[in-house]
């Protein structure tokens, strides 16, 4: 629906994002000229984006994040709690949520989208009380998130994912898990388990080719490959979201799933290690309003 842009926007920039220190003053000037007052409060190291959103909710009409997927993840609970609409300025390494929503990766074009005022309601995923926009993963991707440093992200960009992933792949091993969903329990041995809310993640991977962030479902897949070279064969399908067609990939769509492992394993949500197994996932339909095409 087309609306007049609200008057005051809470601006949350992540200076650690890959392009966080980029020259975006012309972008901010354009937003001001379009009628927005930008409120950018001082923040301490202990302040999360959600803390600031809750604190300033009565002083603003929308939230604009300048960062990557980690910045969005940090803001998720505040956005969900306050109901404030979200404008995204993609300044991160992968910007997977922006890709999912069709938000331009050029910050100026993304800002113009906010000015136009067209919004969509999008779902959020939840695991053990932690919200996520894109995907939560156990196994290989969680190990990757743990080893991919801020320095590597800033220096190499999305190439950094590939460099660290190649090192991890050689030493990765399968793990056992029980998957409870839709009245059934399945025992699996997998290299990675992913539960997606949106379509894109990990700097170019795709959860499922038809997934959207507003379809009311989670998309599950597990990579049950026994040799790393078989994963290499899967890479083209992982990029376009057709991995579910392979015999050694289990894939299904659901609204709730529980994953239990023999020992606690870390869970990566939107590139951040947030919690551990056992993991209870559920969909949170229409939780956030986003400026999008």
Please characterize this protein's 3D structure.
This protein has 293 residues and is an alpha+beta fold. It has two domains: 8-123, 3-Layer(aba) Sandwich (Rossmann fold); 130-285, Tumour Suppressor Smad4 (Sandwich). It has helices spanning 25-33, 49-55, 69-82, 96-101, 107-116, 140-147, 150-156, 158-171, 228-240; strands at 8-13, 37-39, 62-67, 86-90, 119-127, 130-132, 135-139, 175-181, 184-190, 192-196, 200-201, 205-206, 218-223, 249-254, 256-261, 266-269, 272-276, 279-291. The chain has a six-stranded antiparallel beta sheet with strand order 6-5-18-15-8-9. Strand 8 (175-181) and strand 9 (184-190) form a beta hairpin. It is elongated. The relative contact order is 0.17. The model is unreliable at 151-156 (pLDDT under 50).
Show the helix and strand layout.
Layout: E1 8-13, H1 25-33, E2 37-39, H2 49-55, E3 62-67, H3 69-82, E4 86-90, H4 96-101, H5 107-116, E5 119-127, E6 130-132, E7 135-139, H6 140-147, H7 150-156, H8 158-171, E8 175-181, E9 184-190, E10 192-196, E11 200-201, E12 205-206, E13 218-223, H9 228-240, E14 249-254, E15 256-261, E16 266-269, E17 272-276, E18 279-291
Parallel strand pairs: 1-2, 1-3, 3-4
Antiparallel strand pairs: 5-6, 5-18, 7-10, 7-16, 8-9, 8-15, 10-13, 11-12, 13-14, 15-18, 16-17
Helix pairs in contact: 1-5, 2-3, 6-8, 7-8
């Amino acid at each position: 629906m087309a609306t007049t842009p609200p008057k005051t926007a809470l601006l949350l920039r992540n200076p650690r994002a890959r392009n966080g220190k980029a020259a975006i003053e012309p972008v901010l000037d354009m937003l001001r000229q379009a009628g927005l007052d930008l409120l950018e409060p001082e923040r301490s190291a202990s302040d999360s984006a959600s803390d600031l959103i809750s604190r300033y909710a009565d002083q603003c009409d929308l939230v604009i994040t300048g960062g990557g997927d980690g910045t969005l993840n940090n803001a998720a609970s505040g956005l969900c709690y306050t109901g404030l609409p979200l404008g995204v300025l993609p300044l991160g390494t992968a910007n997977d949520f922006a890709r999912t929503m069709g938000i331009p990766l050029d910050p100026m074009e993304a800002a113009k989208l906010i000015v136009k005022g067209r919004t969509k309601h999008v779902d959020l995923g939840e695991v053990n009380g932690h919200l996520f926009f894109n995907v939560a993963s156990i196994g290989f991707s969680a190990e990757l998130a743990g080893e991919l440093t801020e320095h590597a992200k800033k220096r190499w960009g999305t190439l950094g994912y590939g460099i660290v992933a190649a090192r991890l792949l050689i030493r990765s091993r399968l793990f056992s898990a029980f998957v409870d969903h839709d009245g059934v329990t399945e025992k699996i041995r997998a290299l990675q388990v992913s539960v997606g809310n949106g379509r894109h993640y990990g700097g170019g991977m795709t959860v499922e080719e038809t997934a959207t962030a507003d379809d009311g479902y989670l998309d599950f897949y597990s990579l049950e490959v026994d040799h790393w070279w078989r994963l290499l064969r899967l890479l083209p399908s992982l990029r376009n979201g057709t991995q579910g067609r392979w015999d050694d990939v289990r894939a299904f769509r659901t609204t709730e799933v529980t994953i239990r492992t023999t020992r606690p394993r870390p869970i990566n949500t939107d590139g951040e290690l947030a919690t551990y197994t056992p993991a209870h996932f559920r969909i949170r339909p229409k939780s956030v309003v986003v400026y999008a095409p």
